[in-house]
Amino acid sequence: MSNVSVLSRHGQVRAVHGLSLEVAGLFPQPPIGGCIDVRIGVGPGMHAEVVSVRDGVALAVGGQGLEGMAVGARVEDAGSLAVYPSETWLGRVVDPRGRPVDGRGPLPQGPGLRRLRAQPPEAGTRARLGPRLDLGVRALDAFATARRGQRLGLFAASGVGKSSLMAMLARHADCDVAVIGLVGERGRELREFVEDDLGAAGLARSVVVCATSDQAPLMRRDAALAAMAVAEHFRDQGKRVLLLMDSVTRFAMALREIGLSAGEPPATRGYPPSVFAELPRLLERAGPGAEDCAGSITGLFTVLVEGDDHDEPVADAVRGILDGHVVLDRRIGEGGRYPAVDVLRSLSRTVPGCLEPPERAILFRARRILALHRDMADMVRLGAYRAGSDPAVDEAMRVAPAIEEVLRQGKEEAGSVAGAFAALALAMGPEA
């Protein structure tokens, strides 16, 4: 198989159950995370990964469905998985093994390998966050201003416009390379996202790594790991990388399927403990590189909030790891304002260090106006508030709609941090 070095040790499948295989006869036994190649007859082998070793028997999870698998199938040790990214990958769509899936012919492999599992740079020698970054989306540039190397979470339920927001970021953000990881994506939506949402201009500077929802949990998990490995390749070349991953929740679901197949107990709402150990191992790899590396990975990770519960286990764990969160609200989208960012519930932890004093004053005033408008809207609508009773409320009722217009943005529009604050200042006018 591509990207896998096959050694000469052999074993055989002893049992097949659920999503897993019991393998005996390999000596020395492959380690946890080691890869094996399972062959029936003369056809191509099936990739699998060892997730548990017990009493001389390795338990492995297959990289595809187990239909046709039988006891006695030949097993070979396959080392570890890696991808071989290069500049030729820009503009291409690949699977987690680095194989093209866009129908555009073979994809040249780069000279150096990138293992799917890697360690983040040492904390003590890691570079600090860079200057502020133009994300190109006014709602984020003004209310969740980011810095190079920062990691933000995009929290939303399904159907609120995450894909469109990701496409806007890939098109307009100030970066050299965009790496887009689509984990558990609907198969019919891949071409729609690449051709319509991302477009030719966005794709030209992007690498898309995709595993669709019908693929095995191992492939869905590896889509996130491969996207991170590709981003690390470009970061170590000194490039400013934007990593967009949709979604961390589906990554966690794939980990849950693998963990339960390995016999782990379902600890927190059905998620085994290994899920919450793997999340920081993935997310901490994004960010600035080592101190002597000029490159960085600015990561934006979507989190699919089940039932609009922002305190469910995966959302809560991811929010604690990342450097800020952006909340997309269905009611805002239903009201016709896109991107449907709830700016009052969104936060960037680096804002105090990347805004000038006049910009901070504009931001605090805008937040105050929007919060007061939200609190008083029902009273005004019911006639319980009389105009002129409170100048601050009168200002909020007058100015908040203009701020909402600033936050409204089409997919083709590009913005900047300076432009977002200038538009806010113009919408609010001089302070009374």
Report, as a whole number of angstroms, the end-to-end distance: 69 Å
Fraction in beta strands: 15-25%
Classify the oligomer: single chain
Low-confidence regions = 3-8
Shape: elongated
Total strand segments = 19
Strand count, sense and barrel status of the largest sheet are: 9 strands, mixed
Spatial extent as radius of gyration: 24 Å
Keywords: ATP-binding, Cytoplasm, Nucleotide-binding, Protein transport, Translocase, Transport
Subcellular location: Cytoplasm
Protein name: FliI/YscN family ATPase
Region (Disordered): 95-128
What attributes does this structure have?
432 residues; alpha/beta; 9-stranded mixed sheet; 6-stranded antiparallel β-barrel; 19 strands; 35% helix; 22% strand; elongated
Please describe what this structure looks like.
There is one protein chain. This protein has 432 residues and is α/β, with parallel strands linked by helices. Helices cover 35% and strands 22% of the residues. It has twelve helices and 19 strands. The chain has helices at 138-143, 162-172, 189-204, 217-236, 248-261, 273-283, 313-321, 330-334, 351-354, 357-382, 391-407, 417-428, and strands spanning 10-17, 20-24, 35-39, 46-54, 57-62, 74-77, 82-83, 92-94, 114-115, 132-133, 146-147, 151-156, 177-185, 206-212, 240-246, 287-288, 296-304, 324-327, 347-348. Strands 8, 12, 13, 14, 15, 16, 17, 18 and 19 form a nine-stranded mixed sheet that branches. Residues 3-8 have low confidence and may be disordered. Residues 103-113 have a biased composition (Low complexity).
